[in-house]
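Title: Prediction job returns without error message
Component: structure pipeline
Severity: low
Priority: P3
Assignee: unassigned

Description:
Job completed but the reporter wants confirmation the result is attached to the right record. Sequence as submitted:
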Amino acid sequence: MSFDTVFSAASMLALYGWVALVVLPRWPALIAFLRYGAVGLLAVTYAALIFTHFFRIDGGGFGSIAEVRALFSNDAVLVAGWIHYLAFDLFIGTWIALEADKLGINRVLQAPILLATFLFGPLGLLIFVITRATDRALTQRKA
């Protein structure tokens, strides 16, 4: 299987997971599938790529931008890095969705937060954290 194929398959799995998270009811089975099935499969794929390729990259590491550049010059490690993003962002997306449901945040309002998390990871998380803090502050103020 080529790295292009792995990249495409992982990207489609994540995309379908995000679409399901945004548009489908949040059934416990769906959340479990996303967290353990989709994220789990992404994590296993990531681990396989890292364990078989990461330590083979001459000059690669995390000590400098040059070392990171060396890592990502290898397609296997580049795909692993992409899958890292996909897995973490989808996991955080499920957490955001469940927390937003607990707060009673309308699903229409959740959608742009989840979209921001899908596209820009930490930015979506930041928007949610600010939204949650604002909601809690307003709730306490009313009490």
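Comment from assignee: result matches the submitted record. The radius of gyration is 18 Å.
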